[in-house]
Design goal:
There is one protein chain. With 808 residues, the protein is an alpha/beta fold. The protein is built from 31 helices and 20 strands. Helix 10 crosses helix 11, helix 19 packs across helix 20 and helix 30 runs antiparallel to helix 31. The mean pLDDT is 95.
Length: 808
């Protein structure tokens, strides 16, 4: 099982009822309405105004460090009596941070209405409305990332196209996260040692910008250590006031941990958890937490659990350590739910129900190739089962032939119990893709998932793995209209000709690739411009201090200082494009069952009055997921073409662009804004999520598994999301369901499949939740790479989940 100390690693005798404090905190999480927090926004604005008034502004990195230091030193150290892990992301139990220098001003029109909006309302105090309306937002009208890039590059078309919503969505307007900090260095060395290293490098350096960078690192880390010490002070004050001896003991233990960590190397599990959490929440004060991920916590925390178990001599002492460890893991995971990213109301259409998507990665292999499954892996799985949280987004690596089979079964069991988590990755396929990119095997093996599913080398890789969401269907619509996008209403791509004039399918496919390449080029150009805006306005000296390569090079991560650099693209709608291209190939050019004119007329009419042609498309044309030759050929050809096209581009940090095939919830948003397709999909309907076959395909699960697994993982370096919806029968017990799920997962991985995620829920249950949301508050579902509470999704997303192919 990989467990050294746990007799039964599933910990089957423990339930959340054994941990009343955790049960109470889970109830509070599920029933606390998020509240806008202006603390960070106000302090950031004050510091930026002071920096602008300086007669000699200094380097961007040093300026940013002074701002970050002011924000963190001004941040209230809040300790609540029942806290097991200290530190808060905001000043509220569940707070919404605002980053006005990024996309925060988008909420400005909703300051007086956000409490009453239908989806995911926020509470906001009157004083906070005044702070934002008068002191914060007016200052950032011109100095935010988007406006700087617009002015610097003369408002280019590629940035204007980003604002049309239907072509691509660029995350750099809002965040440059989607990476994993070097938490092992924090745990093993402490921040004081990094400050000492940066100080020595600064003294030996004669280059001005590099000296500024080292000074920026020192300022940033000192402010993080100051926050930890202030937490310790506050916990000791709270301990003096409480009348409950158990609370007093708990607060004093936490104060001891904060006074020691993260400044110095962790001594035990409580130290380690505080070091990780304090450093992680501090990252949220520098960058918006959108896919900024936690990493391989099971592997990194295992030595501290082992140390405590080795020191315990009596069986009852070890049993107490097991209970305490599970309680602390639950407390840490609940801490990670204490904040949400700011989402304007229109964002509920794009990312409805999404939280920060901060991934914890479990299992897989170590740097030497041996199994990384350990006792802490099982603790995190048990906590996931007990809590059923949407965030942290739990992702599990499984290496066939190395990780124990019982581990795969347990992953499926937790999926069945929670209904949606964890996501499961085939380590062999992911490592193949990473090594194809040039990562040494020992570094590739140390990957963790970020955001949704994207692989990142822990602590060494600035990958911004979700730099953009790209709509693959948009260039298909442009191909059908000679470069004009119907919704945009103007020419977006080059002239490729009237599709009615083409004599064969190869001409059509070449035109589609021309439009696809043109739109990809625009999106990449825009991303690079926004990246340069971050270099000028928003470097990340604190994050850089925890990324390998930056200190050695004396260069911020946004300037390319990390050991590894890349930019990850999420390609949305592959199955819809493949099914559409297959329909054109088969019906128009191969079997000649209709003309291109007839197909275009049917699409323009949303197939109204074209029932016969629609029936031909739905029932005679092979679909992606069916295992048929035509869609398989088209899919593999497109994947290879996109891989070559994107990896040929170098980003503003000197790394490559890499494609992945997952969609968050943009398959719904992009679909809402798109017309009917040759695949038979109607106007406004969602695209298929990730790399999942369309429900129109009506393929059985084994057919879908074979089709998706047949794709070359080396063409999918930014990973995929393959969604499988399982609906247990009325007579199926849990053991039977888990056995079948495990068999499907094992088969998929043996065939070479890369990633698999389950929704274990029936469409009928989802319909009941739509009708009675208060009775299904904690119903967890997986969208396309992230988890959400079903009742917080917009209606279109809820219907998309209901309409997914359901396998009994």
């Amino acid at each position: 099982t990989g467990a050294s100390w746990l007799q039964d690693p599933a910990l089957p005798d423990l339930t959340i009822d054994d941990f009343p404090l955790i049960k109470k905190k889970l109830h509070e999480h599920l029933h606390t309405r998020p509240r806008i927090c202006t603390e960070r926004a106000l302090h950031y604005t004050e510091a930026w105004q002071r920096e602008k008034a300086r007669p000699v502004p200094g380097s961007p990195s040093l300026r940013q460090a002074r701002i970050f230091s002011h924000v963190l030193r001004s941040k209230r150290a809040i300790v609540r009596e029942e806290d097991l892990v200290l530190g808060t992301t905001t000043s509220h139990p569940v707070g919404v941070q605002i980053f006005p220098e990024l996309g925060g001003t988008a909420i400005w029109p909703e300051l007086l209405t956000m409490q009453a909006r239908e989806l995911n309302p926020y509470e906001i105090a009157d004083d906070d409305v005044r702070v934002l309306n008068q002191r914060v937002f007016p200052f950032w009208l011109r100095d935010n990332i988007r406006e700087w890039a617009r002015a610097e590059f003369d408002n280019p078309a590629c940035l204007q196209l980003d604002e049309r919503w239907v072509l691509y969505f660029l995350w750099k307007n809002h965040a440059i996260s989607h990476t994993i900090a070097d938490m092992p260095k924090v745990l093993e060395c402490g921040l004081e040692s990094i400050v000492k290293e940066a100080s020595e490098l600064r003294e030996a350096c004669t280059d001005g910008p590099q000296r500024d960078f080292y000074q920026a690192v020192i300022l940033s880390l000192e402010s993080v250590m100051d926050y930890g010490r202030r937490l310790a002070d506050e916990a000791e004050r709270a301990a003096e006031k409480t009348l409950d001896p158990a609370h007093r003991r708990r607060l004093l233990e936490a104060a001891r941990a904060c006074r020691h960590s993260p400044a110095r190397p962790a001594r035990d599990l409580l130290d380690a958890l505080h070091a990780v959490w304090i450093c992680f929440l501090a990252l949220h004060q520098e960058n918006m937490n959108a896919g900024l991920s936690i990493g391989r916590l099971d592997l990194w925390l295992q030595p501290y659990f082992e140390r405590e178990m080795q020191l315990a001599k009596a069986p009852e002492d070890r049993e107490a350590i097991v209970l305490r460890t599970l309680e602390l893991v639950c407390a840490f995971m609940l801490k990670a739910t204490d904040h949400l990213p700011l989402v304007a109301d229109i964002g509920n259409r794009l990312f409805g129900g999404s939280s920060s998507d901060q991934v914890i990665t479990l299992g897989g292999v170590r740097a030497d190739g041996s199994s990384a499954v350990c006792d802490m892996t099982w603790f995190f799985l048990k906590a996931t089962e007990m809590l059923g949280l949407r965030d942290p987004n739990m992702n599990a690596r499984f290496m066939p032939g190395v990780n124990p089979d019982y581990y795969l079964r347990r992953l499926c069991e937790v999926n069945a119990i929670t209904g949606a988590t964890p996501s499961i990755h085939n380590d062999r396929a992911v490592l193949s893709a990473l090594q194809r990119q040039g990562f040494p095997p020992e570094h590739a093996r140390d990957w963790g998932a970020t955001g949704c599913v994207e692989p990142t080398i822990c602590g060494a890789h600035m990958g911004h793995t979700n730099c953009m969401m790209f709509n693959m269907v948009a260039p298909l619509e442009m191909t059908l209209h000679d470069g004009v996008h119907p919704l945009v209403g103007e020419r977006v791509g080059p002239h490729t000709g009237d599709p009615r004039s083409w004599q064969n399918f190869d001409e059509f496919l070449a035109a589609y690739k021309t439009q696809l390449g043109s739109l990809l080029g625009n999106a990449i150009d825009a991303n690079d411009m926004l990246g340069k805006a971050h270099q000028a306005l928003h470097p990340t000296p604190y994050l850089s201090s925890l990324i390998r390569g930056t200190l050695a090079s004396g260069t911020d991560a946004v300037d390319g200082g990390a050991s590894y650099n890349s930019s990850g693209i999420a390609m949305v709608g592959l199955a819809d494009v493949v099914d559409s291209l297959t329909a054109i190939r088969v019906l128009v050019f191969q079997d000649k069952r209709c003309t291109m004119s007839e197909l275009l007329d049917a699409i323009a009419a949303d197939f109204q009055g074209h029932d016969k042609l629609l029936a031909e498309i739905l029932h005679r044309v092979p679909k992606f997921g069916s295992g048929a030759r035509e869609p398989s050929e088209i899919a593999n050809d497109l994947l290879a073409w996109i891989f070559a096209k994107t990896t040929a581009r170098t980003n503003y940090r000197g790394g490559r662009y890499v494609p992945g095939y997952w969609s968050m919830s943009n398959h719904v948003a992009f679909g809402l804004l798109s017309g009917a397709l040759p695949s038979g999909r109607k106007k406004g309907k969602p695209f298929t999520p990730g790399l999942t076959p369309s429900p129109i395909a009506q393929a059985d699960l084994l057919q879908s598994i074979r089709q998706v697994a047949s794709l070359d993982p080396e063409m999918l370096p930014n990973n995929i999301a393959f969604n499988v919806k399982i609906s247990p029968g009325g007579t199926d017990d849990l053991a039977h369901v888990v056995d079948r799920m495990t068999a499907y997962a094992r088969t998929y991985f043996e065939l070479g499949g890369m990633q698999l995620q389950f929704n274990v829920v029936s469409s009928e249950t989802l319909r009941q939740a739509m009708a009675n949301p208060e009775e299904h508050r904690d119903l967890l579902v997986r969208i396309s790479g992230y988890n959400a509470y079903f009742v917080e999704l917009n209606r279109d997303m809820q219907l998309e989940l209901i309409e997914r192919a359901e396998h009994s």
